[in-house]
Amino acid sequence: MTLLSKSFGEYVQFQKILLTVTAAVGLARLSLSLVGASATAEFFNMTTISFVAVVLFPVMVHKKGFGAYTQVLVLLSIQIALAAAIITLGIAIAVATGSGNIFTGGEVGPIGDEMTHAAFHLIGGPTIFAAILWLPASVVLFVTRRVARTPAEGS
């Protein structure tokens, strides 16, 4: 499957470290919450990793000559889709067991229908949240292109 001139595999390969960190942090957060250590789970935050991606992806895209603004959007969407999948797993576990966890608790806001909550993460996360983060990421790429040498000049 090709997304804006790159295969899905190329995008995953490009961001494999950040995807691995996201999975580890998200699954640690869920696991800790399932064993009752929600206070500790609060320290494991996938949103923070997404904010790191806003700065890291544009710089890496420029430095490695991976693409431009549209590639940054796809990278952010994949990153957020992984986080959304982990959150949805947490919500599904809560629905199946009848017991809440860190992804269904009141600290994330009042949610009446957990399936709607899960759908919002799966659909809204990789689209709406990625588009919102794309704006500052685009500014980072714009500035990076102005102040940094092109990949060919750096070689």
Question: Could you walk me through the main structural features you see in this protein, from its secondary elements to its overall organization?
Answer:
The protein has 155 residues and is mainly α. It has one domain. The protein has helices spanning 8-14, 16-34, 38-41, 46-64, 69-97, 114-147, 151-154, and strands at 2-3, 6-7. The chain has a two-stranded antiparallel ribbon with strand order 1-2. Helix 4 runs parallel beside helix 6. The model is unreliable at 107-111 (pLDDT under 50).
**What would the principal axes of the Cα set say about the shape?**
elongated
The number of distinct helices, counting runs of at least 4 residues, comes to 7
Oligomer: single chain
Q: How many β-strands, per DSSP?
A: 2
* Computed CA radius of gyration, to the nearest angstrom: 17 Å
> Which class do the helix and strand fractions yield?
mainly alpha
Distance between the termini: 31 Å
Question: Percentage of helical residues?
Answer: over 70%
The poorly predicted ranges are 107-111
Order of helices and strands: EEHHHHHHH
Write down the domain tally.
1
Sheet with most strands: 2 strands, antiparallel
Mean pLDDT: 86
Strand ordering within the main sheet: 1-2
Question: How large is the share of residues in beta strands?
Answer: under 5%
